[in-house]
């Protein structure tokens, strides 16, 4: 196999990528007329997998799914080493057509180019189940199942449908899968000697710095949790200010403290309160209970976990000073993930040879890659999304940037295939 820099017909690839993305935004592939809305075990999600299956089978790929529905296609028989590309094709419930799907479409384009150019690269395309968590409220669920980072009891009892409250297990069975074999999902990683995922950045750093490509060398870990403040609900007009136990005030203090803690932690650590609920939720009642969510992320493990610890302690202290109580409940957590130096270096060499400027960066958002990167040498490629908008019907990414990404990934995979 030749090792010189490969240049593709980027315009042709951009046209095909754009066509695939637009096709998958059609009425057969979304539950909403106003947004992309598809998640595990819905018919529109099944249609999306079938679209990719048809395209890949036409290229001679073997297509199958793991015991709960992660989609896999490979052009080599089992036992032969392959290089993985892909992402996810589910969306959130008011999503756009690029988040996740662009990565799978670009992986499909890499498979097409491999055939057309006679490169002979051994490839495996993966589209992970339920990255967004729209079906069962669990981010990265398919890749966490593959990585064996769930418990069977959770799949049977705790991971409940956002639509009807029934367990993941029941829905998987109804869709024709075999969740009792979930542990076999780890076999999706068999024979993988590398992995690259292309994704929209979901921020505006690339756009605002004038870069079309970001090479991701780390993915932030996160803590998702809730803090609940319990005080006393009283009449808003009849209760003097100094007689109150207003849970909302402590929640407000905590939100400001979270900002301070995350800023002080540095290293890209961020903290967000995205949900807040006051009870009884009446305009004329002092809140007797306040619950707010925590989304704390960073690539420095000690820093972001320290923020989670410190905000929990602050809430307890602030509540106690006002005669109230505070409780901290963790929903989910994943460790930060450093990506593979060799795969990152291959991507950087490929983008440098292309003549395009790029940014080395970390991802503040979670991605399936972080579930498997401790088992498979992995990296990511980011392309800009307009104004940093994602998880919205307004999101947009230029297919020409994805075509450039496909060229860079192809050259990196060629380099890693010949060197390995």
Q: Helices, strands, pairings?
A:
Elements: H1 10-23, H2 43-57, E1 62-65, E2 71-74, E3 82-88, H3 101-116, E4 123-128, H4 141-146, H5 152-158, H6 168-174, E5 192-200, H7 205-209, E6 213-219, E7 221-230, H8 247-265, E8 270-272, E9 276-279, E10 289-298, H9 301-321, E11 325-334, E12 337-338, H10 341-354, E13 358-363, H11 369-372, E14 378-383, H12 399-419
Parallel strand pairs: 3-4, 3-5, 5-14, 6-13
Antiparallel strand pairs: 1-2, 2-4, 6-12, 6-14, 7-10, 7-11, 8-10, 9-10
How would you briefly describe this protein structure?
The protein is of the alpha/beta class. It has twelve helices and 14 strands.
3D structure, described in words:
- The chain has 420 residues and is of the alpha/beta class.
- It folds into two domains: 10-219 and 337-419, Aminopeptidase; 221-334, Alpha-Beta Plaits (2-Layer Sandwich).
- It contains twelve helices and 14 strands.
- Strand 3, helix 3 (101-116) and strand 4 (123-128) form a beta-alpha-beta unit.
- The longest helix is centred in the C-terminal third of the chain and has 21 residues, at 301-321.
- The radius of gyration is 23 Å and the shape is globular.
């Amino acid at each position: 196999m030749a090792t010189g820099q490969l240049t593709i017909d980027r315009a042709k690839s951009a046209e095909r990528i754009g066509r695939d993305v637009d096709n998958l935004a059609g009425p057969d592939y979304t539950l909403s007329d106003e947004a992309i809305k598809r998640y595990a075990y819905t018919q529109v999600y099944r249609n999306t997998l079938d679209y990719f299956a048809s395209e890949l089978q036409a290229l001679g790929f073997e297509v199958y799914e793991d015991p709960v529905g992660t989609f896999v296609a490979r052009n080599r028989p089992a036992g032969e080493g392959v290089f993985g590309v892909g992402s996810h094709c589910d969306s959130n419930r008011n999503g756009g057509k690029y988040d996740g799907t662009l990565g799978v479409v670009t992986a499909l384009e890499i498979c097409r180019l491999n055939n057309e150019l006679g490169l002979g690269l051994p490839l495996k395309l993966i589209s992970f189940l339920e990255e967004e968590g729209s079906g069962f409220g669990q981010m990265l669920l398919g890749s966490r199942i593959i990585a064996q980072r769930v418990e069977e009891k959770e799949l049977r009892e705790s991971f409940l449908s956002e639509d009807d409250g029934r367990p993941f297990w029941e829905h998987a069975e109804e869709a024709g899968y075999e969740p009792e074999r979930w542990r076999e999902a780890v076999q999706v990683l068999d024979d993988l000697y590398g992995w690259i995922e292309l994704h929209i950045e979901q921020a505006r750093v690339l756009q605002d710095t004038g870069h079309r490509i970001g090479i991701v060398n780390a993915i932030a870990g996160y803590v998702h949790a809730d803090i609940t403040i319990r005080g006393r609900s009283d009449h808003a007009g009849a209760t003097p200010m100094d007689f109150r136990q207003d849970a909302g005030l402590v929640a407000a203090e905590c939100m400001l403290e979270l900002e301070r803690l995350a800023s002080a932690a540095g290293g890209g650590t961020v903290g967000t309160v995205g949900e807040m609920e006051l009870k009884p939720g009446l305009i004329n009642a002092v809140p007797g209970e306040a619950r707010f969510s925590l989304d704390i992320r960073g690539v420095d493990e000690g820093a972001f976990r320290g923020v989670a610890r410190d905000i929990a302690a602050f809430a307890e202290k602030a509540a106690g000073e006002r005669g109230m109580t505070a409780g901290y409940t963790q929903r989910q957590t994943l460790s930060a993930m450093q990506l593979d130096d060799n795969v990152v270096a291959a991507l950087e060499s490929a983008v440098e040879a292309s003549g395009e400027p790029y940014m080395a960066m970390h991802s503040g958002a979670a991605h399936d890659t972080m579930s498997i990167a401790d088992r498979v040498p992995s990296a990511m490629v980011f392309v800009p999304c307009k104004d940093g908008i994602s998880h919205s019907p307004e999101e947009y990414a230029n297919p020409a940037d994805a075509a450039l990404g496909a060229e860079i990934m192809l050259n990196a995979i060629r380099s890693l295939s010949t060197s390995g």
